[in-house]
UniProtKB/TrEMBL annotation:
It comes from the Eukaryota. Keywords: Membrane, Transmembrane, Transmembrane helix. This is Transmembrane protein 222. The keyword Transmembrane applies. InterPro entries: TMEM222/RTE1 (IPR008496). The chain crosses the membrane at residues 187-207. PANTHER family: TRANSMEMBRANE PROTEIN 222 (PTHR20921). The lineage of its organism: Eukaryota, Cryptophyceae, Cryptomonadales, Hemiselmidaceae, Hemiselmis.
């Protein structure tokens, strides 16, 4: 749904640890959410991508320029946030359906010192939610600002890897060069139309040469 400032608490993956709270004569066992390890929690079917930049094609542009697409960013629980329109950040419902590629990042590489939170997980979420809050106050444009600028802004807020100047084309290149496909379906949806275009272009050039 549409993001509200502050957001709700993300759902837990599991409860490997337990907090013990003395309550009169009984122990109250409250499951404590832990940060997922890298690679955990990624779920193509349910569109869950913890600590990820996620990507989906933006037709027809992606058919001819496969590095251009729509992006969002996942919080520590894997919920994806994307900038879909003027003053509109949508949670858990990407603009063009399910993601087809993703690039998982490492929250231990956050270098910002001013983010709330006592753990990498909490600081990641603080940066993502603050970035979403900022962009929920912005107009949306196909050129600028767009979904890629929103994701780059979140990474800049956390100074990911010590860098605070992420921008649109750098982000798209990162996902294209280092990202992974969401299975065979993701591969075909991401690059199938571009492959068809290249084949058609090659066939056209051959026929032109021999005609």
């Amino acid at each position: 749904g549409k993001m509200a400032a502050g957001g709700g608490a993300p759902a837990a993956f599991d409860a490997p640890t337990t907090l013990h709270i003395d309550n009169m004569d009984d122990d109250l066992h409250v499951p404590a959410r832990r940060a997922p390890k890298l690679g955990e929690g990624i779920d193509f079917k349910n569109n869950r991508f913890p600590y990820c930049v996620v990507w989906q094609p933006f037709p027809p542009l992606t058919w001819f320029l496969p590095f251009i697409g729509h992006t969002g960013i996942g919080d520590s629980s894997g919920r994806v946030f994307d900038f879909q329109g003027p003053y509109t950040i949508i949670e858990d419902d990407m603009m063009l359906g399910k993601a087809t590629r993703y690039l998982q990042l490492d929250p231990s590489k956050i270098r910002a010192k001013n983010l709330p939170g006592s753990s990498d997980m909490e600081r990641w979420d603080s940066a993502v939610h603050a970035g979403c809050d900022d962009y929920s106050r912005k107009i949306h444009c196909i050129i600028y600002p767009n979904c890629n600028h929103h994701v780059a802004h979140c990474l800049n807020k956390m100074k990911y890897g010590g860098w605070s100047h992420f921008e649109m084309f750098q982000l798209q290149f990162m996902v294209l060069a280092f990202g992974r496909n969401c299975g065979l379906r993701g591969l075909l949806i991401s690059f199938g139309p571009f492959a068809v275009f290249l084949v058609a272009l090659a066939v056209g050039l051959v026929f032109t040469k021999w005609s």
